[in-house]
Protein: DNA-binding NarL/FixJ family response regulator
Organism: Actinophytocola algeriensis
Amino acid sequence: MIRVLLADDEPLVRAGIRAVLAADPEFEVVAEAENGRVAVELAAAHRPDVVLLDIVMPVLDGLGAAAELARTLPDVGVLMLTTFSADEHIAAALAGGARGFLLKTGDPRDLFAGIRAVAEGAAFLSPKVAHRVIQQVSGDRLASAARARGLVAGLTAREKEVLALVGAGLPNAEIARRLHVVEGTVKVFVTSILRRLGVANRVQAAIVAHEAGLV
């Protein structure tokens, strides 16, 4: 039996969710709350396996309640169930301690799957939310790669060679051996590379090398 606490400021929404969960004997609704503050208090009293939180609620919203539950009751799984799917809401919910994010407009089967996953300590995102997260992550990576390639484009061919070897984790002595130059020359190159890339150290330069595809 998976024990669930519902938190939504609309009684009809809570009744609908309760009815859906009642169709499966695996789930039991142990308490209901009309705002995030009451949800936190009831979670402390009932210790449910999963708390279903709406985002927009009075007194304390779902994001605030999720963060407080993650801090005070880390063993209780938090699953956001909302009509709001803006990127900032998704990011804030997951960063604040929620283990999952579902849309009220989704398939009821997603609700069952999400509660089971969160109760088992795993994470769950509804398909539409997962698609948005993947797009965001991919976009961030593409932006980082484009920025890195732009920085590297300003280097000479020799500096790119040195940067690639720095990115591979080689020390100056080994770089000098591979390029058939003295170590002092490598130090000069590395200093120039750091300055031209606008980075503070070799680690940051190595990250640029990887993001630009030199390694």
